[in-house]
Every structure is written in structure tokens, then in C-alpha cells.
Amino acid sequence: MANMKLDGERVLLTPDMATSLLEHNQLNRPVKDQHVKRIADQIVRGKWRFNGDTIKVSDDGGILDGQHRLWAVIESKTPVETIIIRGIAREAYATIDTVRAPRSGGDTLSLLGVARHRNIVSGALSWYIRYRRGVLETYRAPQNRVENSDIETAFDQNRNIVKAVEQAMRVRRLANPSVLSFVYYVAANRNPALAARMIAVLENPAGVSVNDAFFLLRSHFASGYDPKKRDPVQSIALAFKALNAAHIGAEMKRLTWQSQGQNAEAFPKLNIIPDKAEAA
Q1: pLDDT in tens, 43-102
Q2: Which of 21, 82, 193, 206 is most exposed, with the fewest beta carbons within 10 Å of its own?
């Protein structure tokens, strides 16, 4: 190992170069197609950036690290900048990526100056991204994964979501703060007073009618389940229904949303007319 001679260079990795590297690969490990598609999608969308990560090639031509990136360059038909390191001993493979923790959306936000509740802000932005993409109900599907680059872009365009998180944190023991932050944010962008009343009732329902939509929403959140284990999609659907009812001043006997079975309901839309008298 002490006599290992390494050769490294920063290159524009083209699909032809990636093909050549894979053709000489001596380590034919299984390829995870979904992971390749994920990287290729980031490349096609212009989200892939040079970050110093390397393609590691062993002294006998095997790809020790970077196989999925190579396939992604081929699939996307788009060159990317990277560093190729050659001459690494094959036995070093066992040590690659064994101690590196994946970076979270919160880590990304910390680099953008978010000082408090970074993971909550990241979670709220993730729900907002899914909402804008129309994939709330299928958020678990691999193709609907939210990348750190998506979080970065969304934060740049929605910095006021930090204020929404501060509001939601007032009732963090009652409801999932990331989910509620997202709900508050989209509601406040249309009607700030309505969003504020929702938080106020969730925090203290004293003097509020038991048929008030927000009182019923609070009853759902206080139903005894751990907020972290409660179905986030159902909570969002119920919050949207409560906001719609409260917006028109309608009282409710029950607050329910049935997503399955013969009487399955479509996911509710947020039908709040923007309040022009106030700025979100």
C-alpha cells in the first residue's frame, strides 16, 4: 500500500468515456437501476454539480466507486465534471463509503444560513415541493424523492417558510411540525389571518365551538397518537378540509377524509381565495 502510485485528474466525463471505463471494469457488481435513474434525472435537470467526489479506479481497471454515476452519464447522454483517481489497490474497496454519513436537507440549509430548526424547515420544504408537484399521496415512490438540490432551490424561492416553522413550533407536541409548517405556509400565502387562527386554536381551543373546523382538527391531532407516527398525508388532507370550512365560516360535525374503499374521496384541494387586504 505504501508504494501505491495514484493518478488523478479533473475531467469532463462524457458518455463515451463512461462507456470505456465500464467496458474495462473488472468488478461487475449489481447495478441499482433506480439509483442510476435518480442521478441521471439530476444531471438532465441541471442539478448535478461538481462537488469533488471521485470516480475511483483500481490498479487493474475495476471501478471501486462511481459505477452508478458512470451509468447515469450514459443514460442522461450528458457530460459532467468529475475527478478520476486511478491506481487504487483493489482491496481498498472494502473501506469505501463505510464511514461517510449521507448529508440531509438540514445539512444543506445550514450552508445557506438557516440557524434554527433546520431539519423542520427541510421537512416543510419537502412537503411543499411534493404539493407543487402534485405527488403528496405518492410521496414514498422512489421517483418522487426530494433531493437536497430541490431543497436548496425551494428555500431560495420560499425563505418565508422559516416564519411558518416558528409558528408551527408553538404546537410541536400536538402535531408533526414539518407537516404543520407546510400547511401553515400555503394557507398564510393566501390568507394570513386564517392561518394564524388555525395555530391559535390548535394552541388553545378555550372558548371555541366544538363544531369549529379548527377545534375538530385539534381533536384529530390530540387523538392519542404519536405525532411522528401519524399518517402525514391524512393530516394534510384534514387540515386542508378544515381550512376550507373555516374560510367560509362553515361549522362541521365531523372532520374526516376517506382515502380508500367504496366511498373513497379525492385528495382535497385548498380552496382559499387569497386575501388581498393582507400580505402573506
Answers
A1: 998 888 888 889 999 888 888 888 899 999 999 999 999 999 988 887 776 666 655 567
A2: 206
